[in-house]
Amino acid sequence: MRSTTTTTLIAALLVPCFAACGDDGGGATTNELITTVILTFTPDGGGTPIVAEFDDPDGDGGLPPTVDPVNLPPGDYALAVRFQNRLETPPEEITDEVRDESDQHLILFTGSAVVGPATTNTTGPLTQAYADTDAKGLPIGLANTVTAGLGTGMLVVTLRHMPPEQPPQKGADTLALVKASGIDAIGGSTDASVTFAVTAGAPAPALQ
Could you give the CA distance from residue 40 to residue 109 in angstroms, rounded to a whole number? Predict the structure, then answer.
């Protein structure tokens, strides 16, 4: 399903907006609906991944979305981020488009739970760093490293699209601009923005 405007949904813990970008081959930017954002935290050294999802299976309007809390035992994790449109059968993997157009996309991690390159926080239960880059050596955000300490807060995951027809482009100073002045200080438009409640220091999941 395609939409020419950004879809905005409001829930108790978040104000997400969705519309991942595509190209129809004619050079014009179109938008594809994103219904689902998936975070997978895989412990360093192995162990059971911890998965948290934002999911709005019927798209804009209708039933409210569901949001899983992020509950992490202390430690180091590899964080993978995925985007899907589950209104399609089978679900459309928007992640592939973000990866294919990685020079035009940047995933930002902000909020009170995060200490990282896009935040001014000096304390927070999660410390985030990028683990992937595009052809120009600039971060993408589909792969990350996260260290979980102790505490609670909010994790905001934002997919930003910075296409050639909407300068400025993603650059070496983009994260610094977000850190200093917020996401609205950079070019492009927001494809998806969701907020997860974080509790770090939670006990490890019980073995089944």
Answer: 14
